[in-house]
Amino acid sequence: MSITRRSARRSVRILGVASASAALALGVAGQALACNITEFSAEAQCSGNKGVIVVTDKDASGTPATITVFSKNAAGVEKQVGAPQDIKGSAKGTTVSFQENWKPNATYRIHVKAGDQVDEDVKPDLVTPSTACKKEESQTPTPPATPTPKPSASTSTPTPSASESSSAPAGAPSNAPSPAAADSNLAETGANSNTGLIAGVAGALVVVGGGAVYFGMRRRGASSGR
User: Contact, 68 vs 111, CB < 8 A?
Assistant: First the structure.
């Protein structure tokens, strides 16, 4: 069977369409396997009572990439968080974590560098939740405070009695002798009941002695007159 010129042209046309379709399919498949910024995402999470920023790479091609995280304040000034970390994505997703005690409603910029395919930021910027990570409560219970006892209303300073107040006049020295003590000292010096008896005996002896002297002198005068 001979092939006519018309049939040949038709066959060439069919082969051209098939080749173009195959090339287009291969191009689409190649783009699907290439690393893309849309395959990266970031999230602010809590690890216990500490904050972390987790970056996920779902690049099925497994292209190695480097992740860098920057914090941004209200004025737009940036500060790098930790050191850059390398990651190799997968269809299920691969993650890296950056330790960061983030504050509520804070903004972070996530930059991805994957060979010559990706060199840009994850869009939009990461904004942290409005609630901070909860602090762990202490396991040791705090003992209750001991209440300070209040003084009783019935407690008062004792007031000295009237007899105590009158016996010790204000301003008098505490070592002043009492009247009873003065009388006792006077009796010890000789003013007691035996003083009169001793004085009477002494007076009688004086009288007797004087009489003896008088009679002795008369007797001597009479003897000298003879």
Answer: yes
Residue at token pair 């409005």: 130
Q: Distance between CA atoms of 215 and 218, rounded to whole angstroms? A: 5
Averaged pLDDT, 18-32:
47
Q: What is the mean pLDDT of residues 121-128?
A: 96
pTM (whole model) above 0.90: no
Q: Is the distance from CB of 70 to CB of 109 less than 8 angstroms? A: yes
Work out the burial of residue 108: count CB atoms within 10 Å of its CB; fewer than 13 is exposed, 13-18 middle, 19 or more buried.
buried
Q: Which residues contact 33 (CB under 8 A, 6 or more apart)?
A: 60, 61
- Greater confidence (184 vs 195) lies with 195
Rounded CA-CA distance 91/56 in Å is 11
How remote is the C-alpha of 97 from its chain's centroid?
Answer: 32
